[in-house]
Amino acid sequence: MSASVSSSISALIDGLFEQYGPLIWWKGSTEEVMIGAILTQQTRWENVEVALSRLRQAGICSIRGIFAAPMEEIEALIRPTGFFRVKARRLQGLAAHVIREFGGVEGMRTVPTEDLRESLLSVKGVGEETADSILCYGLGRAVFVIDAYTERICWCAGIDAGRRELKGLFESVLPETADACRQSHAHFVEYAKGYCGKKRCDECWIRNFDG
DNA sequence: TTCCCGTTCT
DNA sequence: AGAACAGGAA
């Protein structure tokens, strides 16, 4: 946890902001963000939007809608996202948990972030990345989401740290607001999709980065 | 490590 | 036809 590591993180954040500027990802309701967070696991976002609109048309794109719907209906509607049998069960498990523990999404808003995170992690199908996405994008908490892209970029930048440590580093460097976390995370994903995914390592300013 | 699985791009 | 995709469980 040296100061140089923190400054490296800051330099990455600043460099990506210079490259992409203001970039806001998804203004959705809390409930749709929660559903989308499950559906997007190992799946392209474009396919998630298809599934979300199908759920909306069926009138079940909500916690209570998912909770009440037959498993087969959910499976059919979310089919475009892949892993539809597993994800349908994860969605109902999450909906049931929210209703049972908090009486609905509104009941979550007063719960401290760490408590809420632990609660979400107890749901089958909600791992750390999904839980943090829900907290940041769905509930407006100042939580930074570490995903495979972020981890890879940091590794290429010479920052030798695991996901746990990276999360703490980003949150200590960034302003303590959900918008700051959202925007920076979006930058990392955007960069990785543009360069890492297309293997443009020769054009990557982050590789062998030492700031 | 392997499985879950449809869609899109190569 | 093959790989890759906003992961997580067993």
From TrEMBL:
InterPro entries for this protein: DNA_glycosylase (IPR011257), HhH-GPD_domain (IPR003265), HhH_base_excis_C (IPR023170), HhH_motif (IPR000445)
Top-tier EC class: lyase
A GO term for molecular function: metal ion binding
Domain HhH-GPD: 39-194
Alphabetized UniProt keyword annotations: 4Fe-4S, DNA damage, DNA repair, Endonuclease, Glycosidase, Hydrolase, Iron, Iron-sulfur, Lyase, Metal-binding, Nuclease
EC number: 4.2.99.18
Pfam families (alphabetical): HHH, HhH-GPD
Keyword flag DNA-binding: no
Alphabetized SMART domains for the sequence: ENDO3c
GO biological process: one example: base-excision repair
Family that this chain belongs to: Belongs to the Nth/MutY family.
UniProt name for this protein: Endonuclease iii
